[in-house]
Automatic annotation (TrEMBL):
It comes from the Bacteria. This is Ribulose bisphosphate carboxylase large chain. The basic functional RuBisCO is composed of a large chain homodimer in a 'head-to-tail' conformation. In form I RuBisCO this homodimer is arranged in a barrel-like tetramer with the small subunits forming a tetrameric 'cap' on each end of the 'barrel'. It is an enzyme of class 4 (lyase). Mg(2+) binds at K196, D198, E199.
């Protein structure tokens, strides 16, 4: 039996403590969040919303004397709207407004320590999910955002009018540096723009990071000379500490790489630090969202990926994995479109069917290139182009390296399929429905 106390239904006092105000009109400068709350049985939804507002801003479980020493009225977040989730009894959307003064400028760590800090383990809730946030332009402006972004990346690569193509080197683990470099060379020579380290390749006994970087850059240089195109390989600089991350990034730069990669699991401060390094060094920064599904996947608890995408645009990465719809990893078309819009638009209008609860103004912040990866292949090119549009990277790991005729043939198949589909689109053909036909003709023409 649980001890009776303020955490029991009916005894919580967050509404009374000033964290709930249905008359509150959010200010243009407020940070807004919408949470999906599932209160424990018997817990009042409005009180639960007030508790979320309290615990994610100034409150502890009771009134404290020292509140009187602060401008507490402004510092208290306010639940200003609570709506039942349509068709899902027992769940509620709670809208909460936070004064901008609660947050340190240019710090995802500070933002997230408030918004997702304590409150997800709160006893009066069965589950809690942060669905979306509206970041006021005055706060957006404190961040640097992507240093390169979509437009400048295309200019540097001199590649326009089509999605970029990449591949993750497989097997994920175990290759030696030399064999790894061979995969990179074959894939780039065959027609891809990029190759990529996988999320868990760092510096293991079978291949130390320096070996990988050297063999990969040799492959990039040879493939560039061979094809006359700009090529790149995302060298994963993720490491156990920031000093090593910088050391690896510096070495990548010395070798002439145009791009480096990090994993989401390195943490928000590390991401912001390396983004600033990338900005100073004109390096494109690729973010692999390793780990995100542990908290983004469940629909009632965790953090929606749309929030992570917003935070990462602020933090200043240039590429972000954002889903495929048709590949091996979960993701429905509408929600995925919402993620892509967050990356690629200057203004995201509220579109509930795509999961966007607020208008979001990014000002002039550069656009972030979304990356589709995970179980996709050339046979889906019509669907990928239709669903994801032109400003993205399509990455085929198994879908290149698993080609029956070899790696270069796999890369060529992807490039030919893409160019045929883009041509069909540009000619005004119904490329989505004619997709299989177009692909078959393209394959025949290069057989
Ligand atoms: C893809 C991949 C990527 C996932 C990441 C893998 O390999 O290398 O890590 O795409 O997922 O390990 O599965 P394949 P997401 O191309 O061979 O499937 O992009 O959703 O973050
Ligand atoms: Mg992977």
């Amino acid at each position: 039996t649980q001890r009776k106390g303020r955490y029991d239904a009916g005894v919580m006092k967050y509404k009374e403590m000033g964290y709930f105000d249905l008359d509150y009109q959010p200010k243009d400068t407020d940070v807004l969040a919408v949470f999906r709350i599932t209160p424990q049985d018997g817990v009042d939804a409005e009180e639960a919303a007030a508790a979320v507002a309290g615990e994610s801003s100034t409150a502890t479980w009771t009134v404290v004397w020292t509140d009187r020493l602060t401008a507490c009225e402004n510092y208290r977040a306010k639940a200003y709207r609570v709506d039942p989730v349509p068709g899902t009894p027992g769940q509620w959307f709670a809208y909460i407004a936070y004064d901008i003064e609660l947050f340190e400028p240019d710090s995802i760590v500070n933002l997230s320590a408030s918004i997702i800090g304590n409150v997800f383990g709160f006893k009066p809730l069965k589950a809690l999910r942060l669905e979306d946030m509206r970041l006021p332009i005055s706060y957006v402006k404190t961040f640097h955002g992507p240093a390169t972004g979509i437009v400048v990346e295309r200019e540097r690569l001199d590649k326009f009018g089509r999605p970029l193509l990449g591949a993750t080197v497989k097997p994920k683990l175990g290759l030696s540096g030399r064999n790894y470099g061979r995969v990179v060379y074959e894939a780039l020579k065959g027609g891809l723009d990029f190759t990529k380290d996988d999320e868990n390749i760092n510096s293991q006994n079978f291949m130390h990071w320096r070996d990988r970087f050297l063999y990969c850059m040799e492959a990039v240089n040879r493939a560039q000379a061979m094809t006359g195109e700009v090529k790149g390989t995302y060298l994963n600089v993720s490491a156990g500490d920031m000093e090593q991350i910088y050391e690896r990034a510096e070495f990548a730069k010395q070798l002439g790489s145009t791009i480096i990669m990090i994993d989401l699991v390195i943490g928000y401060s590390a991401i912001q630090s390396i983004a600033k390094w990338a900005r100073r060094n004109d390096m494109i920064l690729h973010l692999h969202r390793a780990g995100h599904s542990t908290y983004t996947r469940q629909k009632t608890h965790g953090v929606s990926f749309r929030v992570i995408a917003k935070w990462m645009r602020l933090a200043g990465v240039d590429h972000i994995h954002a889903g495929t719809v048709v590949g091996k990893l979960e993701g429905d078309p509408a929600t995925t479109k919402g993620y892509y819009d967050i990356c690629r638009e200057q203004f995201n209008p509220m579109a509930l069917q795509n999961g966007l609860f607020f208008d979001q103004d990014w000002g002039g912040m550069r656009k972030l290139m979304p990356v589709a990866s995970g179980g996709i292949h050339a046979g889906q090119m019509h669907q990928l182009l239709h669903l994801l549009g032109e400003d993205c990277v399509l990455q085929f790991g198994g879908g290149t390296i698993g080609h029956p005729q070899g790696i270069a043939a796999g890369a060529t198949a992807n490039r030919v399929a893409l160019e045929a589909m883009v041509l069909a689109r540009n000619e005004g053909r119904d490329y989505l429905n004619e997709g299989p036909e177009i692909l078959a003709a393209a394959a025949k023409s290069c057989a």
